Amino acid sequence: MAASNTVKSARKSLVWLFVILFGLAGLIGFGSTTDENASFTPKLALDLQGGTQVILSPLLLDGEQVTTEQLEQAVSIIRQRVDASGVSESQVTTQGDTNIIVSIPGVPDENTLALIKASAKLEFRAVLVTSAGTATSSVDEPGSTDEVDSTPTPSPEQTPATEEPIAEPVDASDLNWITPEIQKEFDELDCSTAFREPGQIDDPTIPLVTCDRNGLSKFILGPVELDGANISDASNGTVQSSTGASTNTWAVNLDFDDV
Length: 259
Prior knowledge:
By secondary structure, the protein is of the alpha+beta class. It has helices at residues 2-34, 46-49, 68-84, 110-117, 180-188, and strands spanning 51-56, 91-95, 99-105, 123-132, 208-211, 217-227, 231-240, 246-256.
């Protein structure tokens, strides 16, 4: 009787083992078929596969020098970009006092190279419009037909609609930057499927339609009003309440030049 119970227990354990193995195999198969960068064959690491080296050098004006802190910050930013792109076993190191060397297994695609070489620049834009990060589509009402023309005939006193803003924008925070084309782009933007191109450079003189980091919200941003070159100093500290007491919330205080 005891032997029979032992056999049943062993069979039950084997059944659960096979269920777990089949489940893991299914997950691997699903990931390999849905992700274009995935493969059933494991990739070799950088020391075995060989790879590509990208050497980055800063463009300096006469008299400018790169500090150790700036170089370390650039290395940290590039390392985060490479890790976020899904490239494993990559190495980001410095060479001398100016160069940064990025070693990547295999041959990187153009998107990865553009992401690595893109410069990082701090820009300040006004938020003109914000909403949820889903596209807004216009759906015809049930029962509506194309045969009925419900457009009213404009009277001589009416002013015909125009595709241009009512007035020219007076500053970068002016809502007159939102043209029908910008509004249409904003309405059709779906943050769950639309992504910025690696290394994408935005025109600082025009509005920008974009999503937040998590893809939950989308924005219409005005043209760039200030950038990192306008910051003369920065410090950190806790936020003070109206009574002067510390809120234990940390913040970065920026000092700007006379712009």
